[in-house]
TrEMBL record:
This is Multicopper oxidase type 2. Residues 180-252, 591-744 form the Plastocyanin-like domain. It holds the Pfam family Cu-oxidase_2. It comes from the Bacteria. Residues 43-64 are annotated as: Disordered. The keyword Membrane does not apply. It comes from Gloeothece verrucosa (strain PCC 7822) (Cyanothece sp. (strain PCC 7822)). The lineage of its organism: Bacteria, Bacillati, Cyanobacteriota, Cyanophyceae, Oscillatoriophycideae. GO terms for molecular function: copper ion binding; oxidoreductase activity. Gene3D superfamilies: Cupredoxins - blue copper proteins.
Amino acid sequence: MLKKFEKREQALGFYVSTSTKLIVAALIMVQIMIFSAQPAQAQEVPTSPNGQNSPGSTVEQKSNQFRIIRKIKNPPIAQTRRAKNYEKVYDLNIEYTQSQLFNPRTGKYDQVKLRSYTDANAKPSLAESSDQKKGIYVAPQVIVSPGDTVRMNLNNLLSQDYTCQDSIAKEKDVNNPHCFNGTNLHTHGLWISPVGNSDNVLVSINPGVKFQYEFNIPLDHPAGTFWYHPHRHGATALQVSSGMVGALIVKGDRLPSKNVNGKYTKGDIDVLLQEKQSDELGAPIGPMKENVLVLQQIQYACLDENGNIKVIKDSGGKILAWDCKSDDSDPKNNDTGVIEFYKDPTGNGLSKAASWQESKRFTSINGLIWPTFETEAGKIERWRLIHGGIRNTIRLKFFPAKSTLISEEPINNNTTNSPSINQYIQENCELDKPPIPFHVIANDGLTRSKARETNESILQGGYRIDALVVFPKAGSYCVVDDQTQASGSISQNPEQVQLLAKVKVDQPTTTSHDILSNLAKPTNSQESIIHRYLKKRLIESAKLAFRGEVKEVVIKNLKDELSLSPFIWYPDIEENEVTGHQELAFYIDTNNANKVLFEVSNGIRTRFNPQPYDPKRIDRQLELDGVDEWTLQSYFGSHPFHIHVNPFQIVKILDPTGKDVTAEGKLDNLERGKNNQQIIDPEYAGFKGVWKDTLWIKSLNSPTSPRGGAYTIVVRTRYKRYIGEFVLHCHILDHEDQGMMENVNIVMPNQVF
């Protein structure tokens, strides 16, 4: 206590006598004892079998009334068995876990039993949740650095699955979902080798098998937000939908360095994102607060005696919701939600295009549904958002809330005259007010050339965004997944608005977080208050984090519309660098009612020739150190394109009239809604020149006009360092499981044939 007091007095520049110190210390101890005797206002609670609490929940006491707010936490950090000399060893089990998920439609917790990744090295004292191994359906967070060798031991503890056996599988269509208990692991977005026991998705780790992956992360790998998930063809969607998804964060501390052209590049933005830990003189700087957020669509179902999904229907037979019995008075007879097939005998299930909307399930964040964030006004936070769902679009927005704490009354959407989800959100979130702006600094783990201010961001399956988020004043806010237009949904129908989470924002605890006092001087700038505040704070951070010429360069760039060019790792690909061209089109062949084919074509327009996936066929041979320009289209619905190993840079995206909708000021406004109302699609806004590994291939096509509404996406990529076989595919994962995938092989120069 005395040492802590002495440090504070030295920081403030005055001296206090020893006797005075003892008196003050005694007073402080008395205060601590008084506060310790008072009732706790919030406490962590374990899982309750009657469905009243949930892992990771917090109970808040107000006027003798308790209500659950499910405080958000970052996923638990995977524990290393050995971490030295740039080597990290992790042990993950694949096993069933039984727990509960909150169902806002009923206001109760549904019992669920799902396949999960669990950390074999986790200890109760280290777990960040009340019971990480038995509760939260999100995988442990893996944190690595450039230059690390990561050994990931995967132990499949699931029961035997006869469909995984080669002798059985060979007799069946490989594009029929199968081998639900076989698995593997894909490091989505990492620039590492795709072969052997590295990021090899062409292996199957069957039940009872242990396998060690070895990921050698190069020293020149960018820091950023990546993720890992199963990629066993035939079972990917089922396992990812169960919550087998984890954040994979590459952290770096490299300063920008001068390249051959005299420009400073290849710094880690982690170094810039620092802040003073208090307002005291001489206070150290530390990392900006990070929220690592895995967004999932866990589509569990409860089954009747015939193995069909239990549903609630209206009088006309329309499915209103998937049903699970959850009765607090009779918990032993409650249903248990599972994910054990792609479709039931009636055709309902994961592979049905509209099943997510019909199920009335809710997007979870780090395994929690409708969690609460807690922060303070003016505090800048880094939100690392990962769309780890299997299909549906998330249109992220922040709105002020109408009440201090959002009501958690059940929606009870069981009958046609009950309140809709949209009505419920309208009653609690001020959707008629402008959304709170935020700044996107990275897409798919790769830092942008400039921070982009926006009031919404689209996340398709596989997307990641890093955003700097700051709430301007105290109060409550809604984190919303706003309505998506038809072309943004794989079902080709608009998606309803959903509540993702709520945010409790307290008054600022330091003067540096008071936005209004920090920007009290009038200005003629057209920049928003949040933009000016963020620029001011990042410049302050740069002054603390850098020295000499590097500091001058970083500050100069920040003053230039928040340019982040010193933190860019991949130089632009110019047209004169291109050595070859590739074409690709996605397609769903519905001509045979008994067998829908999910296909990829190596040509577009007159060269269109789609085929379903064949594991024995190499679809593309590409040359190491080559630079290709790819032209991408879709001729039946819209699909997210994902390619392993090497990222790509977006050159242009042309709507069916030929307008580049990535250019500043150009709106994507071809689509029409009710009463022919114009719909502005923000999907591609600000994407010109951005580097990504997953990209929505938009189409306004219908089965009767299969090519007239196709958008044309042009990207460029370099094939650097790594050779071997890997895949590209649609990241609607049940489409990939059913054949919308290709094998790609990168070979040494002069070996392409």
